[in-house]
């Protein structure tokens, strides 16, 4: 078995594809999934995560529900306009009924127990707001030694998708993102919008997904509302599967090319709240900000093939 992985997620259409990529990969030991508010409320993200694991034939993977709101300031806005009312373009009800009940503990407790039990370093992949991860590291600082690295989808260097400068996951809980990105010492790869938009998949990719079998057809059926949004955003028939790009890096370290930069997160109350501030000046100025590996390039066709093959098992 390959990389030991825990996914923290808010499904979400792109989260659905990310979960499938990990759940179906023979190179992943998927230890657990924890859920957080984000694209839709946390009760819905938890239901979606359990149904998606059942769809992928993985009821063995425990799911625990996590934070229902940000650390500090209430944030009532979700992304239903992008992902649909149920987070999956109205198709959540078509998911198979989960065989396994949600874990009786909360997300932080499950994260802690899975990490403590691991016999080798574990990769954490937060692909929603970082509230659960911030709570874990704040309450249990000694657990850092069990985390090999964090691969997080979030942030933006040039443009945001929630505000002109802020990406949704960071904007949804900037204080949590600040804790994880700026204040911690765990090795971290940040996968921002600047890269994920370049990794967009087109209608032909989605057709191959849908034709690959029952799982692929179900996943494609969840992209309706999402495709409608990205048809306008991209100007062609396709979608951006942000979270699956991050999971690809979690599964295959180095599939994304990274560059190290000092990073800050704006936690003020002004219009820049939630902005990821990345210092790319050259020569590099002296800075007290933490240096983070930021994914900015990849073999785009190779990455798209890796994601499709991982979800379909090469049946396309």
UniProtKB/TrEMBL annotation:
<dbReference type="InterPro" id="IPR023186">
    <property type="entry name" value="IUNH"/>
</dbReference>
<keyword id="KW-0378">Hydrolase</keyword>
<protein>
    <submittedName>
        <fullName>Nucleoside hydrolase</fullName>
    </submittedName>
</protein>
<feature type="domain" description="Inosine/uridine-preferring nucleoside hydrolase">
    <location>
        <begin position="5"/>
        <end position="301"/>
    </location>
</feature>
<feature type="region of interest" description="Disordered">
    <location>
        <begin position="68"/>
        <end position="101"/>
    </location>
</feature>
<keyword id="KW-0326">Glycosidase</keyword>
<dbReference type="InterPro" id="IPR036452">
    <property type="entry name" value="Ribo_hydro-like"/>
</dbReference>
<dbReference type="Pfam" id="PF01156">
    <property type="entry name" value="IU_nuc_hydro"/>
</dbReference>
<dbReference type="InterPro" id="IPR001910">
    <property type="entry name" value="Inosine/uridine_hydrolase_dom"/>
</dbReference>
<dbReference type="GO" id="GO:0016787">
    <property type="term" value="F:hydrolase activity"/>
</dbReference>
